[in-house]
Structure formats: C-alpha cells, structure tokens
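User: I'm designing a mutation panel for Class-10 pathogenesis-related protein 1 and want to avoid disrupting the core. Could you give me a predicted structure to guide residue selection? Please restate the sequence first so the numbering is unambiguous.

Assistant: Good idea. Sequence first, for numbering, then the predicted structure tokens:
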Amino acid sequence: MGVFNFEDETTSIVAPARLYKALVTDSDNLIPKVIDAIQSIEIVEGNGGAGTIKKLTFVEGGETKYDLHKVDLVDDVNFAYNYSIVGGGGLPDTVEKISFESKLSAGPDGGSIAKLTVKYFTKGDAAPSEEEIKGGKARGDGLFKALEGYVLANPDY
C-alpha cells in the first residue's frame, strides 16, 4: 500500500468559530442546502464523534451515488476535524481510503486560516492520478466556498 500526502492552505474572512460551526458542527444539515448535488448526510453508526460512520448521498452524472465517511477526530476546542472516505462512489478503484485532516486557526483581521492535509492510501503501488487529485481539490474548494458564502450571507448564523 502506498500513501500519498497533499497539503493545502486557504484563508477566509470568517472567524474560526463561525466557520467551524458551518464546516463541522452543522455540516450534516447545511451541506445539502448549499450544494445542489448533495442530497443528504446521515449517521449510519455512532454518535457524531470519532468512529462515527456517515453516508453522504449525492448525484453525479445523473446517477444517485454515496460515499461512506468515517469520523477520525472531532476537536471543537482547537477547531480540528479529521475524517476518511472509506467506501462508496468517491473512491477510485486504486484507492483503499482517502483521509482528510483539517484545522482552522485565527487569521488576519479576525478571519481564519484553514489547513488541510489529504492522504491517499492506495492499493499496491498505485498512485492517484493528477485528474483524481485536481477533482478532489476542486470539490473541496467548492464545499469550503459554499459554506463560507452561507455564513457571510447569514450574519446571524
């Protein structure tokens, strides 16, 4: 099995606590509201903390598909959230799982700095393709911007 790491960092004008609330605390309800392709997020097993399995149902290419996410860490104090895609349509055939480690911290002018590490755990010595990496980054960036936009459009949130 190979492990391939990718890191990304972005900034937001939204304070870490408000952004974390949208990205983590309320995400199961907010994401289907702000991302048209995502129909639902439901807990299949667990209570929302580490070890919880969530089913994310989405439409891609006119077909309804799903991903299974396993929550690895929820740290509300330090604004950190880690999870892995462990099954479903979001995993390429050459990948066992994709893990995401995210952390928000205070940024300039009351905003946030978001750091993300993505780890592809591949089968054998396969490497993720550039297309898979670019597609995953685009989806992640879109999700982040959609939730950030929701918070900005709803000042009382």
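For picking mutation sites, this is relevant: The chain is about 25% helix and 45% strand. The first strand starts at residue 2 and ends at 12.
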